[in-house]
Design goal:
The structure holds two protein chains of two kinds. Chain A is of the alpha+beta class. Helices cover 40% and strands 24% of the residues of chain A. Chain A has one domain: Beta-Lactamase, CATH 3.30.450.70. Chain A is globular. Chain A starts with a strand and ends in a 5-residue tail after the last helix. By secondary structure, chain B is α+β, with helices and mostly antiparallel strands. Chain B has seven domains: 191 residues, Rossmann fold, CATH 3.40.50; 169 residues; 127 residues; 159 residues, Sandwich (Immunoglobulin-like); 129 residues, Sandwich (Immunoglobulin-like), CATH 2.60.40; 117 residues, Immunoglobulins (Immunoglobulin-like, Sandwich), CATH 2.60.40.10; 150 residues, Immunoglobulins (Immunoglobulin-like). Helices cover 32% and strands 26% of the residues of chain B. In chain B, helix 5 links the parallel strand 4 and strand 5. Classes of the chains: A alpha+beta, B alpha+beta. At the A-B interface, helix 1 of A face helix 12, helix 15, helix 17 and helix 21 of B.
Chain lengths: 139, 1147
């Protein structure tokens, strides 16, 4: 399960970042922020070759010693980033994909809320719930 | 142990090359030897064989070879690899010793020399006792050798020498000292290289042969050692594929060793060495993925092998080194042509190395605090000054059992290591690694990673107490995080920066960081903000701020004294901070109430201020500076001594300013910039300035969000009493525009204007001003900016009495009209003349000045009014049809008729005053009387025609076209007042083609005939050539006429003379009748025949029924119809009847 889940706006500022409370929050912020380099590079190269037939899931962005960072970009260029502990080898690519899909669905619900102003940080109990379900449960 | 303990030994990192020792060379005193040596070692290029040469004296002592072990049964190895081993085989034990000896084949003292050489060889052999090192002899000769086989003496003596020295023939070389030294040397070294390879091959075999004596229980270490040695020898042999294979086996063997706390370091050290070799060879073989995979495996295997907990910093250091050396290898490979990608580049390894160095630092801080005293005697001291085996502890070398032999020694040893670790400059190591990583990430398009690493560098500098460098780095990256709106990260960086600024007592930086930490971008909690705000005001009051939390106490003490110095210094108490690029805690927005103001209105400016900090902020002064400095005096708010202005947290305060613009600023833009002064004159003053009208980095996005927000339309909007800050829009400039004129300008005219016409446009100016409009000027004419051709073909004048000429301008600028009293009217006419058709836009611009009072100030206004008149001249005023038909050519000296049609397309009736024809070459056949069109009125679509009889005189030049002339018409509009001038329109008549006629025939006949009454017709035939012409002439019979006269005749006509032929026709039928056909042919001039001549003759005549005696005389002229086409010919007939008889008689 994830140790950090983030939603990044089109303009690359964070809309939502949640990380496991046991570890340094700032470190995850940096990890997510630096992963945007790879996201941007991937989006720009993929966009050129395939046009709009783009796969939203970007796959493993880069491995660090401690974490694996996965990326996903919606059609409106909102980015989802999931950070997984490197030691967690049981997670398969498919599971990561389904996590992103779930996240995307929930994000779409948030955007459909007429009281939500797109571009504002996400404050939604339902979204929180979905994210919590995907996070590592620390007892 | 020193810091360099973690460095890989240089003999491991270098590329192993076969070692060949050269003896018998005196490179210092012998020039020839020097040259030979230089040829061997100077400028070795990559294509030369990989050998490292060394010059050694002939009696050099090589390392002693230990006696070979016959049995390994009782042998217990003390370690994996001896520290000296690699160096020994790289630099001490040669694969080949070459003896150089000066000896020519024909040397007179051959015998003596040969035995001397043999002795020298023997000396070398003894010092190499037990080694497999080869020996070779090179004879340096002065003479060029003969080709092999020819010199019998040489081959015989060579055999003898080999025998004496106990050498094989392959080991004896001859080096003639001639011109081609380098060529000989290259051949020599290739031969040496072969010998060296054989040597290393036998060495490999030798080591391999040990294997069968080993057993797995006691000799595990030897398995690793032997594999490593084989691999290393393979490398020396330049067999890198096999070397890689053996290193890989060695690597797996090293991890099969039983590991425990006492040998953990040794295992890690060796596995690190072998891993380094494997990765290096993989990169060399251009299989970088293998290298990366091996490295990952290595790290995964070794990550958990921490070893002794008290020395866990050693593990971190070792890990850091592993990553760093891999990064170096990777970088090296890239320099040699490998391409790296964004997600796989050396930067990641340097970063990870830095990460482990940070961990090392932390561990060292935790573990080494107790180790204050260095133990004595030094447990790290060894007798030899170094270690026997790689990766062993100095106090228990060679010890291989699980438990340490001596617990007390172990403790002091660890203490000594911990004590040494304290002195390590960790921060320097970390910063060096980070800056390596930064350089890599810059290369591979990772700006955010770069920023992140720079933040880490900054933090490390902060820990290393180099605050200036720390601030420089942090300040550099802060703006990236600010523009990307990562407030959490920005706040974290700002906190570090604030600490640095505090510890350096850098007042301005301190103020800036405080401001930003208090601002809305900061994610700090209220109480932290409160503390910072308190500090901020302390600084403003020129007091020492409280130290930031978590600062090093000793540094705080230093900082205090620095701050005290700062306070003592009277200077530098004023700071101006451009806050636009930050997110300060005071926000400012200014707006002009309108994007433009008329000069007679007061300009209104609103400035909104808002504080985001938790406590109220006293405000000393708000000053606005405008682009015209003179207005600044009206826009200042200062807090008085008794009461201070203050901004309440999260409340918007609005300041309104009004001022009157100066008349010289009309048409100019006024821009605003804002300055807020905090603090007191007696303390410190901080001026916050906003360029433009406020706002900062974040406000643009906030405004955008506010416009998107649903709250704007919701009910919530009305419920909130105060302004919504985010939706406040900035209006940073205003235009000052001239006063609205109270003056009406009316134009009246009757479009369309006609071409060439003097078209009248009357302008009525009526003043509705209260005062007198002074100096009214009118600018009238073609509006500038239209097609340039229009400007040339349009003329504007004020004088309507006469037609203006082409020199008149298209625009009349500034026509003075005097003063205009309130309520009065002024009328003027402007005349326009256009020479071409098409729409035109005219401009009427009235300017005047007036004195008005705005808020008690006298100002002079300039007002103007622009009126556009679109005049269409699309219709041609007079459409010309000049009917020249049916003649396409005009015969010379034969009269013809010209008819003109004047067709009016004007919507207005036109009066034609006169018309006349100005002829050039032609002459009029009739005296020109008065124009036939005088005072004719043409309505729209009507046509007026006029007819002229012309004759073209014989031309002198050969040109067969001729210009006709011009047709002039004078006209005016019908309802116009009589005073308006006549307009003269000139039409240029077309050129005509001339034709000369050899024979001219014309008939003289009455205008009509009567049935049964004689009708005399006289034909004139004129010869216009210079030759006598013969003419055949015949009259065809006709049903309508009887006739008398010559029916068929042949005549001769002299040049220039004329022949008359009289016929008496007798009409038989009434009505239009075709005259009898006259057939004429000229045998000498076949081009002229009946058809060409017939056009000169009338074809038909009207025959009346009544037979009265009236009109016996024929009229002067007859208008005939010629072949049914409407064409006018005038046939002059001035002669009387008396001629008839003559011609008949002649006939």
């Amino acid at each position: 399960m994830a140790v950090c889940i983030a939603v990044i706006a089109k303009e690359n500022y964070p809309l939502y970042i949640r990380s496991v409370p046991t570890q340094n929050k700032l470190k995850f912020h940096y990890t997510v922020h630096t992963s945007l380099d790879v996201v941007e590079e991937k989006v720009s190269t993929v966009g050129k070759s395939l046009g709009d037939q783009r796969e939203l899931y970007l796959g493993l962005l880069y491995p660090t010693e401690d974490y694996k960072v996965y990326g996903y970009v919606t059609n409106s260029k909102v980015k989802f980033v999931i950070v997984v502990d490197s030691s967690n080898t049981s997670l398969r690519d498919n599971e990561i994909r389904s996590m992103f899909r779930k996240l995307h669905n929930s994000f779409t619900d948030v955007m459909c809320n007429p009281f939500h102003n797109p571009g504002d940080p996400i404050q939604s109990k339902a979204f929180d719930g979905i994210v919590s379900g995907m996070m590592v449960q620390t007892g | 142990m020193t810091v360099s303990q973690w460095e890989l030994p240089p003999e491991l990192c270098c590329r192993p090359m076969a070692f060949v020792a050269l003896t018998g060379l005196d490179v210092v005193y012998n020039a020839v030897h020097r040259a030979i040596w230089d040829a061997f070692c100077a400028n070795r290029r990559a294509d030369r064989v990989p050998i490292s040469f060394k010059v050694l004296p002939g009696d050099h002592e090589y390392p002693k070879c230990r006696t070979k072990r016959t049995s390994y049964e009782w042998y217990i190895p003390k370690g994996i690899l001896k520290t000296g081993w690699m160096n020994k085989h790289l630099n001490l034990v040669p694969a080949l010793v070459v003896l150089f000896y000066e000896l020519d084949w024909d040397d007179p003292q051959w015998k003596e020399k040969q035995s001397e050489c043999a002795t020298k060889v023997e000396i070398v052999r003894t010092s190499l006792q037990g080694r497999n090192t080869k020996v070779a002899v090179v004879l340096i000769q002065k003479k060029t050798p003969l080709p092999p086989g020819e010199d019998l003496v040489a081959s015989e003596r060579a055999a003898a020498l080999c025998n004496a020295c106990d050498l094989s023939g392959k080991s004896l070389f001859v080096l003639p000292h001639t011109d081609h030294l380098v060529g000989y040397i290259i051949r020599l070294e290739n031969a040496f290289y072969e010998h060296a390879q054989t040597y290393y091959y036998t060495e490999i075999r030798r080591v391999k042969s040990h294997k069968e004596f080993l057993n797995k229980t006691t000799h595990q270490l030897l398995f690793v050692r032997h594999q490593f040695k084989i691999a290393f020898f393979s490398e020396l042999k330049q067999d890198t594929q096999n070397a890689l294979k053996y290193y890989r086996t060695a690597y797996s063997l090293v991890h099969e060793l039983r590991s425990h706390e006492t040998n953990m370091l040794e295992i890690k050290t060796m596995s690190g060495f072998i891993n380094y070799k494997i990765c290096r060879l993989c990169f060399q073989h251009n299989t970088p993925l293998d290298a990366i995979a091996q490295f990952r495996k290595h790290i995964d295997l070794c990550k958990k092998k921490i070893g002794s907990a008290e020395l866990s910093f050693e593990h971190a250091a070792w890990m850091s080194k592993q990553f760093q050396s891999f990064g170096d290898l990777f970088d090296e490979a890239i320099k040699l042509g490998l391409t790296a990608i964004q997600t796989q580049n050396p930067g990641f390894y340097y970063q990870q190395a830095a990460c482990f160095s940070q961990e090392r630092k932390q561990l060292a801080q935790q573990l080494c605090q107790a180790a204050v005293n260095y133990p004595s005697p030094d447990p790290l001291d060894t007798q030899s000054g170094g270690l026997d085996f790689y990766g062993q502890r100095p106090w228990r070398q060679g010890h291989q059992s699980i438990d340490p032999p001596d617990g007390e020694k172990e403790k002091t040893g660890i203490l000594a290591l911990q004590n040494k670790e304290i002195d390590v400059a960790h921060s320097e190591l970390i910063i060096a690694l980070l800056s390596n990583a930064v350089a890599q990430f810059k290369k591979y398009k990772c700006p955010r990673m770069k920023s992140h690493l720079m933040v880490q560098m900054g933090e490390e500098y902060y820990h290393a107490k180099d605050y200036t460098k720390a601030l420089k780095l942090l300040d550099y990256v802060m703006c990236d995080y600010r523009t990307e709106r990562w407030w959490g990260l920005l706040t974290a960086i700002l906190i570090t920066a604030l600490r640095c600024a505090y510890l350096m007592a850098s007042v301005k930086d301190y103020i800036i960081y405080c401001m930003e930490l208090l601002g809305r971008a900061s994610t700090l909690k209220e109480e932290q903000k409160g503390r910072i705000e308190k500090n901020f005001f302390k600084v403003l009051m020129n007091e020492v701020p409280d130290p930031e939390p978590d600062c090093d106490p000793s540094s705080v003490a230093v900082a205090r004294s620095l701050w005290n110095d700062c306070i003592a210094l009277a200077a530098s108490n004023e700071f101006t901070i451009e806050v636009q690029d930050y997110i300060p805690f005071i926000q400012c927005k200014a707006k002009f109430c309108s994007p433009s103001f008329h000069i007679d209105q007061p300009i209104q400016l609103q400035v909104f201020l808002r504080a985001d900090c938790p406590h109220p902020v006293p405000l000393n002064k708000l000053a606005i500076s405008l682009s015209n400095q003179e207005y600044n005096q009206w826009c200042v708010v200062e807090s008085l001594a008794q009461e201070t202005m203050s901004l309440l947290p999260r409340a918007t305060k609005c300041f309104n300013f009004r001022f009157v613009a100066k008349s010289e600023d009309v048409g100019k833009k006024i821009e605003v910039s804002i300055e807020v002064m905090l603090g007191r004159d007696n303390g410190r003053c901080v001026f916050l300035t906003w360029r433009g009208a406020g706002g900062d980095i974040a406000s643009h996005h906030e405004a955008l969000q506010a416009t998107r927000s649903s709250r704007r339309w919701g009910r919530g909007f009305e419920m909130r009493p105060e302004l919504d800050w985010d939706s406040l829009l900035i209006q940073h400039s205003t235009m000052i525009i001239s006063r609205l004129p109270k003056l009406s300008v009316q134009l009246s005219h009757q479009p369309p204007a006609l071409i060439h016409e003097l078209y009248r446009i009357s302008v009525t100016i009526e003043s509705q001003e209260e005062g007198v409009a002074k100096d009214v000027t009118l600018t009238a004419g073609l509006k500038p900016g239209q097609d340039a051709i229009l400007g040339q073909s349009t003329h504007v004048t004020l004088d309507g009495t006469k037609v203006c000429d082409d020199t008149t301008l298209a625009l009349l600028p500034d026509v003075p009209l005097g003063d205009l009293n309130s309520g009065t009217k002024l009328e003027r006419s402007v005349y326009v003349r256009c020479r071409s058709t098409g729409p035109r836009v005219f401009l009427f611009h009235v300017a005047y000045s007036i004195d008005t009072t705005v808020e008690g100030q006298q100002i002079v206004c300039k007002c103007h009014k622009v009126e556009n008149v679109v005049t269409s001249l699309a219709q041609v005023s007079l459409l010309w049809m000049s009917l020249f038909e049916p003649l396409d050519q005009v015969a010379i000296d034969i009269p013809f008729m010209l008819m003109t049609d004047i067709f009016s397309t004007s919507p207005w009736p036109l009066v034609l005053a006169s018309s006349c024809l100005q002829l050039l070459t032609m002459t009029s056949n009739t005296p020109q009387l008065q124009s036939q069109l005088e005072e004719v009125v043409l309505q729209t679509g009507e046509c007026a025609s006029e007819c002229f009889c012309l004759r073209c005189p014989p031309l002198t030049n050969s040109n067969n076209t001729v210009a006709t002339g011009q047709y002039l018409i004078s006209w005016r509009r019908k309802p116009s007042n009589a005073g308006s001038p006549l307009i003269q329109t000139t039409v240029t008549l077309p050129h005509v083609i001339l034709e000369s006629v050899p024979l001219y025939i014309h008939a003289d006949l009455p205008s009509f005939g009567r049935v049964r009454e004689s009708l005399p017709v006289l034909y004139y035939i004129e010869n216009r050539t210079a030759l006598v012409q013969e003419v055949d002439m015949a009259v065809e019979p006709s049903d309508a006429f009887m006739f008398s006269g010559l029916k068929q005749v042949r005549l001769r006509i002299l040049p220039g003379s004329e022949q008359r032929m009289l016929y008496n026709y007798y009409p038989l039928m009434a009505g239009y009748q075709t005259l009898p056909q006259l057939n004429i042919s000229l045998p000498r001039c076949p081009t002229t025949n009946t058809h060409t001549l017939r056009r000169f003759l009338p074809q038909r005549i009207f025959v009346k029924v009544m037979c009265t005696d009236m009109h016996r005389h024929t009229p002067q002229s007859v208008l005939c119809e010629c072949e049914g086409v409407k064409c006018a010919f005038l046939c002059p007939q001035p002669q009387g009847r008396q001629l008839d008889d003559i011609s008949i008689a002649a006939a």
